[in-house]
Amino acid sequence: MNIKSYKPNEINYCREASLISATILDELTNVISEGITTEEIDNYCLNRIIEMGGVPAPLFYRGFPKSTCTSLNRIICHGIPSSNRKLLNGDILNVDITTIINGWHGDTSRMYKVGNISVKALNLCQTTHECLIESIKEIKVGEPISNIGKKIEKIAGENNFSVVRDFCGHGLGINFHENPSIVHYYDKEYDNINFIDGMIFTVEPMINAGKYHSKILSDGWTAVTKDKTLSAQYEHTVYINGDSIEILTESPNGVFYS
Ligand code: MF3
Ligand code: CO
Ligand code: CO
Fold it and tell me: Nearest residue CA, atom 12 of ligand 1?
């Protein structure tokens, strides 16, 4: 498999794009509350991306109609921002932002909790965040990529949740999505593919409260849980810089968001 590798001095635009995406996710903490629509959230993100000199990668990507993905409750990923529904007390929402700076991508997402959410929903969000952070700790040059899925499956399983199989993380840089795929469940095919120095990729586990099965709605994008249970996701863009694993989309304000 052809996996691209970058020197630290080659990825400045990727750092910048990642920082912009993360900065806006930080800001959304104060933007998202009961009564706002996902279209209004999308507009906020678009304006801020443009203000900071970037371009929203999802807009018109393979025909996607909006600047961000907003995935509410049972939506696993690729939810389309819409003016149809105001957020309600108890909702959980993923906002996924990818900014492009000079052709380089920075891709990250988080969960937002509207008002008082159920114990189950909170546990799902916390477990999903733990899956992301703990699996990133498994990344090491020369070790198999399957370490990521192994770790995520273990943590999700211990909490009686399931790991979505139909969507995965990905290499990125000049392209939004490229090799390798980063699957979040254990797949022995990835026992033989190792992390290499200089890789840039995302880890973005999607964890369901019920079964892992998904289906796509008639809009051709929105992926939902087949059994209608809640789903959560967190995503970071990661760079392997020798022995140090850099989370390029880390919160600039140290926002604790799980
Ligand atoms: N940001 C998403 C990811 O994590 C991709 C969204 S593609 C879109 O890979 F077309 F739906 F925007
Ligand atoms: Co991604
Ligand atoms: Co994303």
Answer: 58
Task: Please report the atom of ligand 1 found closest to the CA of residue 176.
Answer: 9
State the Cα–Cα distance between residues 88 and 131, nearest whole angstrom.
Answer: 27
Q: Which residues contact 233 (CB under 8 A, 6 or more apart)?
A: 71, 76, 77, 94, 96, 109, 111, 128, 204, 205, 206, 207
Count of domains forming the chain: 1
pLDDT in tens, 162-182: 999 999 999 999 999 999 999
- For residue 68, which ligand has an atom nearest its CA? 1
Its pTM stands at: 0.98
Q: What is the CATH number of the domain that holds 219?
A: 3.90.230.10
Ligand 1 binding pocket, CB closer than 6 Å? 58, 61-62, 64, 69, 78, 96, 98, 107, 202, 204, 235
Q: What DSSP element (H or E) covers 172?
A: none
